[in-house]
């Protein structure tokens, strides 16, 4: 991945953070965005620098805002000297059963996950079309493929992202651009660690692998989709869930 240039949205924590580190380690130059936690972002930059791979820069930018997305894409191109691909990872959840779900639980999740994906895909795709090459990887979820109680809002966004990926793959495949999604299951991020021990044990019983995945296991697949080895994979959804949805 030496010399390749990528943007990862939501790179200060979890899967995004692991993706940034994985790409930098592979020699790529990486920019990432984050919503608010500057300290966490600085920690990722410092961690990446220790790897001795490619360059890494961070940008405070809200995925919900198209103007910020457009400005960020321009700033990334300037900072890295180009852009070969984007990983649209920034996402949130506000899990509640529908009877308890407030309007803003719906709006916030739609706005970050679905509009945020639109914003960065839209802001980056024209440049990729012009250069006749590029990669777009969207971090969806198995919740976009199977239903989980309490996730009406989240599932709608994750299924919506898969629809966007398949449609966009059709629109831009002819320009040498691939558009794919990864659909992780339970992953050991802060959300997992915050669950009660008894709940974690119950969940583990539903996963054939018997454990949650690691952010690195998701990052490895994202890195593969960005690499030359994945040149003929377009419009696909790669499930990374230890067999949960099987
Ligand atoms: P996380 O909460 O650990 O990190 C989220 C990142 O997104 C942070 O860097 C945060 O700053 C950023 N972010 C959130 N809202 C933003 C906004 N409006 N603008 C800009 N940045 C914003 O999340 P995670 O668990 O690593 O999840 C990352 C992605 O993976 C999400 O899209 C999530 O839906 C998906 N996913 C996660 C899991 C899991 O088990 N953790 C499973 C399946 C899918």
Automatic annotation (TrEMBL):
Give the similarity note. Belongs to the short-chain dehydrogenases/reductases (SDR) family.
Q: Mind telling me which InterPro entries this protein's record contains?
A: KR_dom, NAD(P)-bd_dom_sf, SDR, SDR_fam
What EC class does the entry list? Answer: oxidoreductase
| Sorted UniProt keywords | Oxidoreductase
Query: Which SUPFAM superfamilies does the record associate with it?
Result: NAD(P)-binding Rossmann-fold domains
Q: Which organism is it from?
A: Paenibacillus oenotherae
Q: Which domain of life is it from?
A: Bacteria
- Which GO molecular function annotation, any one, does this entry have? 3-oxoacyl-[acyl-carrier-protein] reductase (NADPH) activity
Q: What is its EC number?
A: 1.1.1.100
Q: What is this protein called?
A: 3-oxoacyl-ACP reductase FabG
Q: Name one Pfam family in it.
A: adh_short_C2
Query: Has UniProt tagged this entry with the keyword Zinc-finger?
Result: no
Keyword Magnesium carried by entry:
no
Where does the record place the Ketoreductase domain?
4-185
């Amino acid at each position: 991945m030496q010399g390749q240039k990528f943007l990862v949205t939501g790179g200060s924590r979890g899967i995004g953070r692991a993706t940034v580190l994985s790409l930098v380690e592979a020699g790529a130059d990486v920019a990432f965005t984050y919503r608010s936690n500057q300290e966490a972002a600085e920690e990722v930059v410092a961690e990446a620098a220790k790897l001795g791979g490619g360059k890494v820069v961070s940008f405070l930018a809200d995925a919900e805002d198209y103007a910020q997305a457009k400005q960020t894409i321009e700033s990334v191109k300037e900072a890295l000297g180009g852009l070969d691909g984007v990983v649209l990872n920034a996402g949130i959840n506000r899990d509640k059963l529908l009877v308890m779900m407030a309007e803003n639980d719906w709006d916030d999740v739609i706005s970050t996950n679905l509009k945020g994906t639109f914003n960065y895909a839209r802001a980056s795709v024209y440049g990729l079309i012009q250069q006749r090459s590029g990669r777009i990887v969207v971090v969806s979820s198995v919740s976009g493929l199977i239903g989980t109680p309490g996730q009406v809002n989240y599932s709608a966004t994750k299924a919506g992202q898969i629809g966007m990926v398949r449609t966009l793959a059709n629109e831009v495949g002819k320009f040498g651009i691939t558009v794919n999604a990864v659909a992780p299951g339970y992953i050991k991020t802060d959300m997992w660690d915050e669950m009660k021990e008894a709940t974690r044990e119950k969940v583990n019983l539903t996963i054939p692998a018997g454990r949650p995945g690691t952010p690195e296991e998701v990052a490895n697949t994202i890195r593969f989709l960005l690499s030359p080895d994945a040149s003929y994979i377009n419009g696909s959804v790669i499930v990374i869930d230890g067999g949960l949805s099987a």
